[in-house]
Amino acid sequence: MKPETYKAAIFRDTGSVDVVELPYPQCGDDDVIVRNLITGVCGSDVSAYKHGGDDHMVWKDHEFGHEALSEVVEIGRNVKDLKLGDHVFPNQGKALRDMRRMATVGGFSEYIRIPQCEVGYSVLKIDNDIPLKSAVLFEPFVIGARGARSLNPGPGKTAIVFGAGIIGISAAIMLQWFGCSKVMVVDLSDFRLENAKTFGLVTCNVATEDLKAKALAEFGAQTSFFGERCGADLYLDAIGMKPAIDNFAMLAGREASLAIVGVHHEPVAIDLMKVCYSNWHIGGCGGLPIEEAAVDILAMMRSGRYELSTLVTHEYQVDQIADALVMGANAKKAQKVCISF
Question: How far is CA 291 from CA 83, 109, 111, 259, in A?
């Protein structure tokens, strides 16, 4: 039986969110209604709560949340290739057919109406037998997979990832999945680095360890025009802060590649002579379409190689959305925070 209303989290402003009751949506002939099962708290949600949402398209007075794993509960008569109970990922701006609604899809609400629903566009199917706390990581793994794939990873290559948050961990796991023989994750949080170790990742806490010494020990050394350099081939910045670029410039040898996945809010200097003479390849976060990334991510999730559910460290009810946003910023205690319905 359909409810008359549903709970919805509304972003109001910096430090302000509400949970309200809204009328249950009507399903048109071309629409689908999904019930959210679990939704990840993204770093952009946390930043919006702390600093304001406009830079992240988290608009005032909108339902928000965009990392939802949902269950199909109503299907319009014209919609094909879905059945009741299917698990899906509402595909961000495409789900609501408004690219400005990338972050205000309604993942922190109990229900979402998907207008003019098309499988493979509006929603992406997620295997029902993938555990919920693994499947909810689909969207951050898209970001990690894009960055990893942009580096052209493969057997015989090695990598260093700056940042052990959920994006850094997802990128590191995908670099492994794509064949890299050794991947190191660099961070300041012992809690997150301990999580990284459970996935067979090498770690370095730069607060207590000498990064260059550890990198040389793990990846070997090469001699360059600029002195002794680390033998790692690939680097990925998942923090969007100056130390990641400085550490890349300190370590990288000739022909090294860097993907910048973390969002830098301030300009960062880099010595272009080193870029030139070392022939460094520096790119952005990658352009792999989400539909293509899904093929590799779902194959990885199906494989059973990784116990991804351990990355979900905290679950809250939607009425506790403010607490969830605060915990999402706590690198010492949290890896991935979710709202569970």
Answer: 20, 24, 23, 21
